[in-house]
From TrEMBL:
Keywords: Acetylation, ATP-binding, Ligase, Nucleotide-binding. This is Acetate--CoA ligase. GO terms for biological process: acetyl-CoA biosynthetic process from acetate. SUPFAM superfamilies: Acetyl-CoA synthetase-like. GO terms for molecular function: acetate-CoA ligase activity; AMP binding; ATP binding. InterPro entries: Ac_CoA_lig, ACAS_N, AMP-bd_C, AMP-bd_C_sf, AMP-dep_synth/lig_dom, ANL_N_sf. The gene is acs. Its EC number is 6.2.1.1. Residues 101-493 form the AMP-dependent synthetase/ligase domain. Belongs to the ATP-dependent AMP-binding enzyme family. It comes from Candidatus Desulfovibrio intestinipullorum. The lineage of its organism: Bacteria, Pseudomonadati, Thermodesulfobacteriota, Desulfovibrionia, Desulfovibrionales. PANTHER family: ACETYL-COENZYME A SYNTHETASE, ACETYL-COENZYME A SYNTHETASE 1. Residues 545-623 form the AMP-binding enzyme C-terminal domain. It comes from the Bacteria.
Amino acid sequence: MSQEHYTSTLTQQAGTYLPPLHGKASAWVCGNEEAEAIYMQALEKPEEFWEGRASQLLHWFKRWDKVLEADEERHKYRWFTGGKLNASFNCIDRHILIGRRNKAALIWQGEREMDVRCYTYQMLYTEVCRVAHALSSLRVRKGDRVALYMPMIPELVIAMLACARIGAIHTAIFSGYAEGGVRSRIQGAKAKIVITADAAVRAGKFKPLKANLDPILEKCPSVAHVVVVNHAELFDVKMMPNRDIWWHDLIEDFTLDVDFPCERMNSTDPLFLLHTSGSTGKPTGVLHSTGGYLTYAAHTTQWIFDMHDDDVHWCTADIGWITGHTYGVYGPLALGATVLMFEGVPTWPKPDRYWRIVEKFRVNILYTAPTVIRSLMRMGEAWAERYDLGTLRILGSVGEPISPEVWQWFYKNIGNSELPIVDTWWQTETGGAMIAPLPYATKLKPGSATKPLPGIDAAIMRDDSTPDLDGSADRRSGHLVIRKPWPGIMLGVYNDEEKYQSYFSRFGCYESGDGAEVDEDGYYWILGRIDDSINVSGHRLSTAEIEAVLVSCPEIAEAAVVPMPHALKGEAIYAYVVTRDEVAWSDTLRKKLLDTVRRDIGALASPEYIQFAEALPKTHSGKVIRRLLRKIAGGSSLEELGELTTVAHPEVIKPIIYGHQNILLGQHETASMEAEAAADGRG
Ligand code: WT7
């Protein structure tokens, strides 16, 4: 077997599921025949295809002169040049003009059950105009950066759309970030204004935001004002005179003369700046355009979720991530849908919170992440059983590979074995989903994101930069790249041209950094980040594949595998596993896991060491940070791990290091020892 190929067994798992077509004639894309015709059309005449979508889905103040201006040498792709539009107009005003004035645009469920707010399109318009006026009174102008360090509250959506109305560039900073992450983003963006809240409410506790921000701002000279939402009603918020203003005081003057005319933005003007979640290292500041991005957001939202007028759409991702931007705000609102927004977490006060919300608001589309599904799976299906989930029509997954086992759990327990699951592969840089099924057209295979969407030219490259071409083999594996531009592609990396160019330097087209395998049906199986892959005796093994096998054992809730240096093999495999609740850690279980990997993949893939852990280090968006686990497996101490600002619960790291040391000493840890260490780490 050659080195550039992954050895993968993922594709051999489980069966296939046909799309549920009965009664679905109203679907945007219905049945395979219609889908095939669309794929062909997009392939043959891509510009006509994208231009068609841009004019069907958005309102343009002025039509574009050119669909695409491509500078192939510098890899700059500018969509709908000469076109004028405004994202806020498209997400609000337009719907009011066509009779959706009294339709719910945004339903908000607070952390506390009785905290519910609902904004119709008309109400959203009023609030957005008031905030646009208010920001404008603070001298926010087109092109200025406004940082949003806010919890999941309606004011966050309102602030985004107010910025878009003015033409200011919003940059959302996840509210769970501590100091370093926040400071570097505000400084990097040279933000003029920061909008925040007194505190976020998470799992029954207040997490101060404004107080956290104050010391950070001492080193952010660009910030002229801080606008503070009084969300948690904390009484001891310190406000700095002339700098800090309460949100409610600021907008108070703007009630009567509400209309705030939309800035006529160029299609190629930036809409927002957003940093990647940092699972692979330093976060990258990605800049997205107005026309191309919004077209791609609306287009993918409509087709992937088959979104219709009376749907209640719930994207569970925090708006601090691209998923929240595209599928929690811009995509669905551009289509005039109803968005559900939830402030809390899935397990608080009990692990039934998501299902309560689905039942309470009759949710139709539920888009979530494997990390959430795994955590709910770990606690057992009984939590979902007592709720009526009958309104759900489509389930979605994003962020990490969803292993066939987890897919099946979601399908059976939440989807009642009848709903399509749209597993959507994409990245902050791509603006919207790239590889995903069309729910009423694409046959599903658990664990595969299926096929590139119409107009998306994905391919697999070998290490030597030659394409692993269609037809050259039944199965192809290697680097996942995109060969042709699409409207959602990032405008650039903020103030870092070199980083932008690095996406194109290796293959001459967009390099995702992920590994993938394509099966004989042209289905894509995402194998994880290429940087994370493991090379055992010259064979490249994918993290996703080995982890999927470990998680297929009913005792295991989560797994992460990383390479560790090995004198003979080059690299050996080190596995961290988290057991489901009430499963004891034992050598018998270790042996079972080893046997399973040996049986399902082969001896080559069987881990040298298996370490039980209480929890794995993850980004705030829920991705396992294998980079840290690799360092620990290689013997690094806590001090040698470096930057930890992107780690959501850094206290999980210490017990993992402790467990690793025991493994090397040949002492087999017990759950209680780890628990002690965990308590240590938190103390
Ligand atoms: C990376 C991008 C896209 C929004 C969320 C994260 C991984 C994402 C999938 C999926 C397998 C996935 C990839 C990608 N990823 N979706 N459906 N199957 N892997 O955005 O922080 O920019 O991360 O997330 O590795 O490169 P992001």
